Amino acid sequence: MVGPQRPQFVLFGSSIVQLSYSNGQWWMGSSSFLHYHLSDIYSRKADIILRGYNGWNSRRGLKVVDQVFPKDAAVQPDLVIVYFGGNDIRLKKIALHIRSLSEKTRVIFRTCPPVNEEQFCISFGTELVRSNEDCQRYSNACLELCRDIGGSFIVVEEILKVLKEAKWEPSLYWKSLPTEFTDLVADDRIHTINVDEWTLYREHWH
């Protein structure tokens, strides 16, 4: 652990998490940018940790969830975003395990993205094994689960909206978290500024 300790956000899921920084991953689409944007938005505020396993579904994830998230760990995550949407189905036990880690740990679920069915068949040279109809059924099941256990589904903007509006203490919203090492930096010999307060390039995030 590199100190001082920041809040930890863990992204737990399948290929869309593991390969989120890889080039040319057409099947991920814009949803893969979640991890990129969160790392930028929460720079100097929280650590974004990837725990992605290419080709896995939540059945496999469930087998290792107590190793990835041991209950006796000295530091527990503040937020876990679960995304096995591309390959899936067993989520409830994962959700219950993560929620039991500590009182501070929050969990967010993402539903699976739509499928470019034509491109999928061309790229893999097989008959369609994953359709938008299947994705819709999965998404509906995920929403129902989240209603049952109080979780959420979202992409970047909606995640930020949830974090902003959540009544969690402490708040995990990016503008509410303290900035690490907020020493003033001299811009000349007379005036000082805090460059971390420059958020013009983040104006689209609320």
Automatic annotation (TrEMBL):
Cited InterPro entries? Iah1-like, SGNH_hydro, SGNH_hydro_sf
Biological source species: Aquilegia coerulea (Rocky mountain columbine)
The signal sequence is none
Top-level division of the source organism's lineage? Eukaryota
Entry-linked Pfam families: Lipase_GDSL_2 (PF13472)
Instruction: State what protein this is by name.
Output: SGNH hydrolase-type esterase domain-containing protein
Indicate the segments forming the SGNH hydrolase-type esterase domain, all copies: 11-160
Q: Which SUPFAM superfamilies does the UniProt entry name for this protein?
A: SGNH hydrolase
